[in-house]
Design goal:
- The structure holds two protein chains of two kinds.
- Chain A has eight helices and nine strands.
- Chain A is α+β, with helices and mostly antiparallel strands.
- Among the domains of chain A are: 76-131, Ribosomal protein L9, N-terminal domain (Ribosomal Protein L9, domain 1), CATH 3.40.5; 141-226, Ribosomal protein L9, C-terminal domain (Ribosomal Protein L9, domain 2).
- In chain A, the strands form three sheets. A four-stranded mixed beta sheet of chain A has the order 6-9-8-7.
- In chain A, a hairpin with a 3-residue loop joins strand 8 and strand 9 (209-220).
- Chain B is of the alpha+beta class.
- Chain B is built from twelve helices and seven strands.
- Chain B has helices at residues 6-9, 34-45, 137-145, 149-155, 158-161, 164-179, 187-196, 204-207, 214-228, 234-249, 258-262, 268-274, and strands spanning 60-62, 69-71, 79-80, 95-100, 109-113, 118-124, 129-135.
- In chain B, the strands form three sheets. Chain B has a three-stranded antiparallel beta sheet, with no helix packed on it.
- The N and C termini of chain B lie far apart (79 Å).
- The chains are: A alpha+beta, B alpha+beta.
- The interface between A and B is medium-sized, with 35 and 34 residues.
Chain lengths: 252, 276
């Protein structure tokens, strides 16, 4: 009886430890040791006006109040001097995380402080910027192009009836994968497709930049037993957030 | 400190834990310029902005037990500044040393809170130079509030800057602005920067003294004094003396030759025989 209890207890403790370990490795739970704020536990006696009080030993006993950076620091507003992917175009007044501004944008000369002088300086050439290619392309175009280039689309078609692959078929398949595209943006391969297999088609953004997207045409039957189960690569490959995958592995 | 004059008349700020001190003797006081001494006195007497404690803004508070009105007395927490703080920019932070108690009747234990430092590259627009400096997160926030490193260095008072390195950079910037020696190859950029920081332009003679320690200042003063009064060679002095002497007595030399004095075998009568 005792043995079993001990075993269970040890298992429990192990489990707890493992949880602690994983949590520590996942997120940095240590306090950020920044500016400390303290106060006197026993404030000194009142002195005469214009004279300093005499400090005794007990007055040196301090009480911890807080750290300044316990709360999250607010985002900083800055003006971009160049096109930055996913942030904005030249002359934009944007609010970004302080970490991004201090470590990347400001040292590289991509952004400046939003001081009143700088705001006035960048106001003047606002009209000239509208005709630039970047501004017409948009802020997030580059990132979406990058994501589409690593995509593997599944295009389900009927296994019971004959068909010819259409633009709308691809548009619907893209919508299922949470990508909204108009018909004009899609260009199909020159040969007409009537059989299942791998295909590549083109997607253009604002008529300026285009990207080739890979995909697979699959057959779906009315009788689900006839459907083939294929081993395909994932629809979206990770482009930015790789650390999330690591977290999932450690948890499991 | 007893020899220092400012100690007698003006109250020096509480807790003499400063990053560095200005102190001179009565003999050397005359060498230093007035504006330099004024800055030193300001540094020694001015209270810094509170960093590690929060002062009570009220003048009076009610007593919690009796409800009686009590005067508020803000006593700053003593902060230590080691020698290393003069090599970085800690933004007024320092080492908070004291005791800690868990509750009223517990024994007190010594406790030290230290600042967290990180080395960062900071760019100066005026000097067109990058610095690798140990800073705290508070410094980075202050730089953001001032819209850049240059503004932070130039606008903050010496008491709050709290670093010899910061004052050295400040002096370098002020001299560069005063002499207009920035961006020698790019006149457009130079005018732009001079326009931006026009409030900080001061005469060169004053800018050169900002943030110098007393030994440095004395060395500078003595060098300047030596330059104005160059040492005169003895040769020149003797020539003048000789000329004066000749003018008084004439060219004829009546004294005996020194060889006759040295030679023991010669006699005076011999000399007299030769003469005729």
């Amino acid at each position: 009886m005792l043995k079993t209890i001990l075993q269970t207890a040890s298992q429990c403790s192990k489990g707890l430890l493992s949880v602690k370990k994983t949590s520590a490795s996942l997120y940095n739970l240590d306090l950020i040791r920044t500016t400390v704020i303290v106060e006197r536990m026993y404030p000194p006696k009142l002195a005469k006006i214009g004279k300093k009080p005499s400090l005794q030993a007990r007055n040196k006993v301090l009480k911890f109040v807080c750290r300044v950076h316990d709360e999250k620091t607010a985002d900083i507003s800055c003006i971009l001097t160049d096109f930055v992917e996913g942030v904005g175009i030249r002359g934009d007044l944007v609010t970004v995380k302080r970490r991004l501004f201090r470590n990347k944008l400001y040292p590289a000369g991509l952004a400046v402080y939003a001081s009143p002088e700088n705001i006035e300086r960048f106001k003047k050439d606002e009209n000239d910027l509208r005709n630039q290619k970047e501004s017409r392309l948009g802020v997030f175009a580059e990132m979406t192009l990058k994501q589409l280039s690593g995509m593997y689309l599944r295009i389900p078609m009927s296994g019971d009836n004959p068909w010819i692959l259409n633009k709308t078929h691809i548009r619907v398949a893209l919508r299922k994968a949470s990508v909204e595209v108009k018909d004009e943006c899609i260009t199909l391969p020159t040969q007409a497709i009537t059989e299942p297999g791998e295909i590549t088609f083109q997607v253009t953004i604002n008529g300026l930049k285009s990207v080739l997207v890979r995909g697979m045409v699959l057959l779906h039957h009315k009788d689900p037993k006839l459907n083939q189960i294929l081993d395909l690569p994932p629809t979206f490959q990770p482009t930015v957030r790789i650390w999330k995958k690591k977290v999932a592995e450690t948890v499991s | 400190m007893a020899q220092m004059k400012i100690g007698k008349s003006i109250r020096i700020r509480w807790g003499k834990n400063l990053p560095y001190v200005y102190r001179w003797t009565n003999e050397t006081e005359g060498l230093l310029p007035e504006h330099y001494k004024q800055r030193c006195i300001e540094f020694m007497t001015k209270d810094p902005t509170p960093v590690h404690w929060r002062p009570n803004p009220n003048k009076y508070i009610p007593n919690p037990k009796t409800g009686e009105r009590v005067r508020v007395q803000n006593v700053p927490v003593t902060v230590l500044y080691p020698a290393e703080c003069n090599k970085g920019l800690w933004g007024g932070e320092g080492i908070v040393a004291g005791y800690r108690k868990k509750h009223e009747r517990a024994t007190k234990f010594p406790k030290i809170w230290r600042p967290s430092l990180q080395k960062r590259v900071l760019y100066s627009e005026i000097l067109n130079k990058h610095f690798l400096i140990a800073v705290t997160l508070r410094t980075m926030d202050l730089i953001d509030d001032h819209f850049g490193f240059d503004n932070y260095i130039l606008k903050t008072h010496e008491v709050d800057l709290c670093s010899k390195l910061g004052m050295d950079i400040k002096r370098e910037m002020l001299v560069a602005l005063a002499t207009k020696s920035i961006y020698p190859d790019d006149p457009v950029k130079r005018d732009q920067i001079l326009e931006k920081y026009k409030d900080f332009i001061m005469p060169v003679e004053e800018a050169e003294w900002v943030g110098l320690s007393v030994p440095e200042a004395l060395r500078k003063a003595r060098e300047a004094e030596a330059k104005n009064n160059p040492p005169r060679p003895l040769k020149d002095m003797f020539i003048v003396q000789l000329a004066q002497k000749i003018a008084e007595t004439g060219l004829e030399d009546t004294s005996e030759s020194f060889i006759s004095k040295l030679n023991p075998f010669t006699t005076k009568p011999l000399k007299t025989e030769e003469k005729p």
